[in-house]
Amino acid sequence: MAKKLYVGNLPYSANDSALSDFFSKAGAVESAVVMIDKMTGRSRGFGFVSMPNDDEAMKAIESLNGVEMDGRKLTVNEAKPLENRPFRSNGPRR
Fold first, then answer.
1. What is the pTM of this model?
2. Which domains, and CATH codes, for the chain?
């Protein structure tokens, strides 16, 4: 089963293909997505990588956490599921 990883402190120049290439050092990458700010169109500084199995995901965490990518030390760990947030009375959740 695929394992999803959270990647934080990405350089703002990072894109999906650069993230995928960087993580391919640790094993096969199913998908890599850099989160983009809607207003500016640039990276929000974090993203997610899916790897096909637990062994490769653990190898990626162990070998890439704290490693520099374009001068920034990455934070790599297992992604946590999105929690339901309470309804806000001042408008819709975005």
1. 0.85
2. 3-78 (3.30.70.330)
